[in-house]
What we know:
By secondary structure, the chain is of the alpha+beta class. The chain has helices at about 1-20, 30-40, 40-60, 100-165, 175-205, 230-240, 240-260, 295-360, 370-400; strands at about 70-80, 85-95, 270-275, 280-290.
Amino acid sequence: MMPRLLFISLFVLALSVQAASAPETPGLLPTQMARPLLEQDPNVAAARAAVEAARHEAGLLDSSPYEWTARLSSQRRSLQEGPAYQEWSAGIERPLRLPGKASADRNIGQATIEGAEARYGEALHEASRDLLSLWLDWIAAERGRELANANRESAQGNLSAVEKRLRAGDASKLDVSLAQADLAEQQRMENDAKTQAAVAWGHLHARFPGFGQEWKTWPTPVPLKESAAFWRERILAESDVLKTAQAQLQKAQAEAERARADKLPDPTVGIYTASEAGGRERITGLSVSMPIPGGQRDQRAARSLQLVEVMRQQVESKKRELEAEIANALATTEGAYISLQLAEAGAAAMQDNARLMQRAYALGEADLQSLLLARRQATAAAQSALAARAGAAKSYYWLLIDAHLVWDLDHE
């Protein structure tokens, strides 16, 4: 019975984890499109190359930094009132890296790789944020252009209706002037909206040249279903900034280990041979030399230990900064979603009010100024709803990017 209950519990837990790791992303750019754009970003490509450089550096650290040194000398020995002899000596020697230092060097190399990989992940993370922001800015600008175009067409139709009523004697020249002024203002706003859309597209295309103009669908923000603890743990676990700081701490610890091991100098071992007295004497031998350690080695070891403490405190500081940013992001995302609901409800009410005012004006129950005011209020409410949707979408998907829950950011 117990194994069955355990299996059911693990199955339910797996389903819950899978659900938490796959949040809703309606309308978001598909991974197969976003990922190539991110990988082609110059900052990401540079960070990826830095990872390869770090691997080569780790390979250098893994191998001994010492090389064999060959020595060859020749001399002539002259005896007083005697013969002269040609003599020579040859030898080869090399310092030997002690085992503790080799282990420390490997740890330094591993920390170097992990730091480079974390910086690559951070470059990918920042590029993802830029892609999302520029894309949403462009969509918002396009929606603003469409809204301005609709308002301009409405103002154009309104002017035509007023001019028709003027010819029928049912409107004044003041109404015509007001309608013309309203049309001019709407034309200006439409031109500004077109300019903003062109600028937004220029920024997006310059930053990500392969982006296609067909992706104009809003990514819909949805309410957060997971707990604050889930987001905190997930983002802290996936934070490349924190991983970078932790890799720097690991590297400092390995360097401290290396400095402690370096208190004992590496010995130099060699073999040599020599010929003296015209070849009648042959000498072979083994040589061992070692520097006599001084106080500098102790000072370096003490300094490295203090640097470890510095990096440990920096990791803790970065973690606290991230926790504050996560709390702020959660509050912003939740508040932005509520603001979106309110803004869209207000925009719908203002739009209904504008339609009712249009009907009242057509029936002669309202004046033109009241109609224009209602339209301006509806336009302002629609623009506010547009900005609220952009803000809510940006905060929601930024949170998902920080948690590495989209675009395969958890498989860097």
